[in-house]
Amino acid sequence: MISRCPSSSLPRRARGFTLLEVLVVMLIIGVLVSFAVLSISRGDTSVQDETQRLAALIRLAGQEAVSQGQEFAVEFDSTGYAFLSFDGEKWQPVADDELLRPRSLPQALVIDIELEGERLTLAGQSQEEEEEKATLPRLFLLSSGEMSPFDLTVHKSGTGGAYHIIGTARGDLHVKAPADD
User: What pTM did the predictor assign?
Assistant: First the structure.
């Protein structure tokens, strides 16, 4: 008489999972964990994205200043920044340039600026400060390739994790992430 193993009398499905089933479950778990990690880290990307955008725009305006032989400036206030060009008599907002258009900062984002070694407070744009508007901090980008030395700090209001954009008088531009501080 041949004795049968108790496991052989069970239906095939009751013996365990196939390798394919285990791999499919692992794939699903991996996808869910990836989405969770991406959604958690999204909070910091607005600061990083805005810092990278501002650095790229300053670089672009500096290159435009050299290639066009025209002086440019970036003017900052508490709500955003705008690019200006010098027309020989006065500073005018850059016109007809989609990239160098005035930009507003995303909500809760703050820019602190140290310009030529002096820490500056950015003014708001209330009607009472309209007279101060002429004295808003300006970062100059000259046709010689030089710029005002500066250290811009971009961060969320009330939090750490600040990104820095550092510019030298020679026109060099560096972006430092929070871990680089």
Answer: 0.68
